Amino acid sequence: MRHSFHRADDRPPIVLLGVTGSIAAYKAAEIARALIRGGVRVRVVMTPAAERFVTPLTFEALTGSPAITERSASGPEISHIAAAREAAALLIAPATAHTIAKIALGLADNLLSEIALATTAPVFVAPAMNVEMYGHPATQANVATLRARGVTVFDPVAGELACGESGVGRLADPERIAQGVLRTVLKAGDLEGESFLVTAGPTREPIDPVRFISNRSSGRMGYAVAAAALARGARVRLVTGPVSLPAPPGAEVTRVETGSEMAEAVDRAIPASTVLVMAAAVSDWRPESPAGRKIKKGPGAPRIDLVQNPDILEKACRNKGGRIVVGFAAETDDLLAHAREKLARKGVDLLVANDVSSPDSGFDVETNRAVFFMADGAEESLPLMTKDRLADLILDHVRAIRLEGETRSVGARDRFENQ
Ligand code: PMT
């Protein structure tokens, strides 16, 4: 989905903050404050149920603008459709199960749900509710529908809930929500003009028709990079091994199974790309001669000879031209030494070395801990963070490398013209 922004002037973008009837509604005040601190303007839209938990006046005092409520919008002075149009983002926080269900279905029976239907800006939703309500298949299906449509969902966290129960349902941290929205709003469009080629997921190397060699990559890291690049205005071709994630809306997707198929898909797509991000866990080896039929159990174990798969990243670096190439290094030990060796051998612009030995980082988890190695020798050690956040930081580096390259070539042209 391409998002459009309607900025008639140079003033800070507006985030529409939709507040629904949840006990967590008071935390929307904290979110509004963090958003304003981050450099955007905030307009609050309240559902009638939200007004039972917080007053519009609280938000007026915080944001400097009257909150939009059913009552205030009944006069001619506020057009909520106009509000939807001028917003750079719509954030619904907290979002009740009811509001989530309505926007998943496209129902428009109050101002906020009408705005959610009318806006073309990126939409963010931060659910907050009872643990059973959140876990209910209906809510889960509605959340999945929103995600598939490109809505960013700030997953609720585990903890004690207002209803006395405990479990997953508490509103995510207000600061984290605000930062997530700010990243999109303030950086929207900064990668416009770039064509990303992103690889993700594992490869499967057949032993026989039913068995294969593979690894535990879930695709999350590569999919997060693809989604973040799309959100920042880039075109994205995603070459993906077998994973169970929905493709980020707007990405052109090529599905492959083996390392050789991934190499071919990258070969085909690379001429049109300006940035390559190799987040896939490509199997280094494959069985030399996969059996045509299922290998039967017999006395002793079968012998499986392996041969090397093509090194996609190395080849891409040999024909780099002006393309920015980002590689990953998955290490279980001696991360820094191995990563430095890979940076030198592969010749990438940025190497993201992740520690895949700890249970909260690397393969098949939501979070990652990485060290960035830049081509000029600089290194940056990052704390544990979500893969979405890491993806955004990778893109910040891509942007910085591009700007630096442009500055260098303008400098060279100026020197040439002044000779
Ligand atoms: O998918 P997730 O569950 O989210 O997990 C994310 C991840 C751990 C898979 C990801 O963050 C990651 O580290 N991906 C690279 C995994 C890997 O294959 O690392 P490596 O150190 O073996 O390879 C180094 C680089 O060479 C990688 O960019 C890899 O894509 C590339 N490579 C490797 C082998 C090969 N034949 N061709 C390649 O291009």
What does this structure look like?
The protein has 419 residues and is α/β, with parallel strands linked by helices. The chain folds into 2 domains: 14-186, Flavin prenyltransferase-like (Rossmann fold, 3-Layer(aba) Sandwich), CATH 3.40.50.1950; 190-408, CoaB-like (Rossmann fold, 3-Layer(aba) Sandwich). It is 35% helix and 23% strand. It is built from 13 helices and 21 strands. Strand 19 and strand 20 form a beta hairpin. Helix 1 (27-37) packs parallel to helix 2 (56-63), helix 3 (80-86) crosses helix 5 and helix 4 (97-105) packs across helix 7. The chain is globular, with a radius of gyration of 24 Å. The protein starts with 13 loop residues before the first strand and ends with a helix. The structure holds ligand PMT. Ligand PMT binds at residues 201, 217-221, 259, 278-282, 284, 309, 311-313, 327-330, 342, 354, 356, 362-364, 387.
Essential attributes:
disordered N terminus, five-stranded parallel β-sheet, binds ligand PMT, Rossmann fold, 2 domains, alpha/beta, 419 residues
Number of domains: 2
- Kindly report the spatial arrangement of strands forming the biggest sheet: 12-11-8-13-16-17-19-20
| Beta content | 15-25%
Output the CATH class name of the largest domain.
Alpha Beta
Q: Give the distinct bound molecules.
A: ligand PMT
**Distance between the first and last residues' Cα:** 48 Å
* CATH architecture assignment name of the largest domain: 3-Layer(aba) Sandwich
How would the global form be characterised?
A: globular
* Unreliable residue runs: 1-8
Largest pleated sheet: 8 strands, mixed
Structural class, from secondary structure content? alpha/beta
